[in-house]
Amino acid sequence: MTTECDQKASMSDQESITNFTVPAVAEETVAPLSDRGETVFALEDVSVFYSAFKAVREVNIGVRANEITAFIGPSGCGKSTVLRCLNRMNDLIPGARVEGKVYFYGTDLYGSDVSATEVRRHIGMVFQKPNPFPKSIYDNVAFGPRVNGVKKKDELDHLVEKSLKGAALWDEVKDRLKTSALGMSGGQQQRLCIARAIAVEPSVILMDEPCSALDPIATARIEDLMREIKSRFTIVIVTHNMQQAARVSDRTAFFTTEINPASDRRTGVLVEYAPTKQIFSHPSDIRTEQYVTGRFG
Amino acid sequence: MNELRKSFHTELDHVKSELVRLAASVTESISRATQILLDQDLEGAEYIILGDDEIDARTLDVEEECYQILALQAPVASDLRAIVGALRMSAEIERSADLVVNICKASRRIYGHELDPKLRGIISKMGEQAQVLFGHAIDAYVEMDEAKAASIDDMDSYLDGLQKQFIQAIFESHAAGNVDLQVAVQLAVVARFYERIGDHAVNIGERVRFMVTGWVPEHDGAARHRARQAVDLTPVGGIPVVKSSVSLDTSVRPFTPPDERI
What we know:
- The complex is a heterodimer of chains A (297) and B (262).
- Chain A is globular, with a radius of gyration of 20 Å.
- By secondary structure, chain A is an alpha/beta fold.
- Residues 1-18 and 25-36 of chain A have low confidence and may be disordered.
- Chain A has a single domain, classed as Rossmann fold (3-Layer(aba) Sandwich), CATH 3.40.50.
- Chain A has helices at residues 4-16, 79-85, 116-122, 137-147, 153-166, 170-173, 186-199, 216-229, 242-248, 276-281, 286-292, and strands at 39-50, 53-64, 68-72, 96-104, 107-108, 123-126, 204-208, 234-238, 251-260, 265-275.
- Chain A is built from eleven helices and ten strands.
- In chain A, strands 5-4-1-2-10-9-3-8-7-6 form a ten-stranded mixed sheet, sandwiched between helices.
- Chain B is mainly α and 262 residues long.
- Chain B has seven helices and no strands.
- In chain B, helix 1 runs antiparallel to helix 2, helix 1 (6-39) runs antiparallel to helix 4 (117-143) and helix 3 (77-109) packs antiparallel against helix 6 (181-213).
- The mean pLDDT of chain B is 90.
- The chains are: A alpha/beta (297), B mainly alpha (262).
């Protein structure tokens, strides 16, 4: 039963935040690369500063729906920084500042009326090191839905099962849902984190080096999983592993660093953003060619 | 354990199935070209000649797919052999399609000239045998059957024999005044086309053996060469010995026309 109080609460929520209109995406129909035109993120001249230091400058990128977009480049090139702009994780770093515009389905993410918490509800994140909560497997996945107000047990059960199946983990853990998530292998923990991220049904999942702590088999499982779930989510992944970007992504953005002669500090810069097969077979920028062939980096 | 990298394996399967389809259409066109030659069917010849553009386009697509797989998926072990083998096989198939076109072009050149029954009979047999060899090569590829692939080389000697018989028959027919010199030359060239199609089938068989075992017949020759070199470094096989005072200019080589491009 919805009480008047609940209605008021939700009304005030709506007033205080921008209500994103995320278009529903058909689950099974995935159009070929060239036909998928819908832009999820549009970055226009995005520069990120850590206090006075310009970490990355003037990035222009359009991330498309239901694709896997990979950010690659040498250390310090700003790829993680740009990724963290996409769900306002940089807000949590003192002194961090974003210039330019980041549009999410046409909404300015850094607009004054936009709540960072609401942004992160739509744009989930998976980190380098698997970070399950010290709770049971079930409670990890149910955490987000519970915060969002799902209370009924059968509804939660259904969500947990659906999310664990979505993360290709259900068959491995269905008999021990109540045991601690910390007892799982690293690869399983990372898939649990993906299950936890998709449990709140975001439209985008950001992945920051999701496989760098995993062995090759667990890595292959995560990569397979990414391919499976991209029909329902848009994925942006930062990876140090060029081959991983080559294997899984549809589009690749290559960042590098350039030295600012005035301050002698390195600033990240976007060099090339193109379909992955182009980046790895005939890139248009000589710096990309040199990086992917291992002649520089 | 569940299968990993499924989408990559699907791409590998796609390359194979497309190559098989291409090879099958070449196999089919061999018998059609033979019939065109025997019936002096100019319209049919035109049809095959035009159709070759499609074979070229599809071969390029398969090769592009192979490049993408090599560039993006870093295949190893049997997957690597499958892709490298497929790339080389695609060239064999494409070249065979060109030879079928050449047969059709030759049929236009001999248009209006009657061939005696003996010549017609051998042409028919050569066409059949070339088709059998090519079909056998695809079967070996589909089934990844090393023994079947190896048998193509033996089967090819029958086609080589038919070619010799045919050349002899051309001489006899020419001597009897049944075919004039121009037609005789065209027919000799046609025999060569069939024989080369057989050779390409043998090559496909060798690629299949390479995919299955990593071995090709050239490995035996290479091993013999290394064994000889271990004992005596003097070059053998007609390669001129270059005196140490003379530098070998590798940029200038006598031009040797490829034997099959006529």
